[in-house]
Amino acid sequence: MTKVEKLERDVAALSETELAEFRRWYAEFDAAVWDRRLAADVAAGALDRFADEALAEHRAGRSRPI
User: Fold this and answer.
1) pLDDT mean over 6-11
2) What keywords does the record list, in alphabetical order (predicted)?
3) What is the tally of helices (H) and strands (E) in the chain?
4) pLDDT at site 5
5) What is the pTM of this model?
6) CA separation for the pair 33, 38 (Å, rounded)
7) Does some domain include residue 48?
8) Domain total for the chain?
9) Best exposed site among 17, 18, 37, 65 by fewest CB in 10 Å?
10) What are phi and psi of 50, to 5 degrees?
11) Residue 43 maps to a domain
């Protein structure tokens, strides 16, 4: 049995209360993982191209207030 299969089995066996607690924990965990990945991408310059494109579009007058 793989780790994922074991997790699936264990999650399926949770009570409604335990499942709600797990959902809350996992949402926080997943958001923290996402934040770390985004911070790493920003630090590595992986998003610079998108920022440069957006700024060029704005300078060319192809943007509008939101």
Assistant:
1) 98
2) Plasmid
3) 3, 0
4) 98
5) 0.71
6) 9
7) yes
8) 1
9) 65
10) -70, -40
11) yes
pLDDT class of 13 with cuts at 50, 70, 90: very high
Structure tokens, 10: 């264990």
**Which structural domain range is residue 34 located in?**
15-59
- Rounded CA-CA distance 32/58 in Å is 31
Please check whether residue 10 lies inside any domain of the structure: no
For residue 38, which amino acid is it? Answer: L
Residues 18-63: tens digit of each pLDDT:
999 999 999 999 999 999 999 999 999 999 999 999 999 999 999 9
The answer for residues whose C-beta is within 8 angstroms of residue 15's C-beta and 6 or more apart is: none
What pLDDT, on a 0 to 100 scale, did the predictor assign at position 61? Answer: 96
Name the 3-class secondary structure at 2.
Answer: coil
Q: 22: closest CA among 13, 11, 33?
A: 11
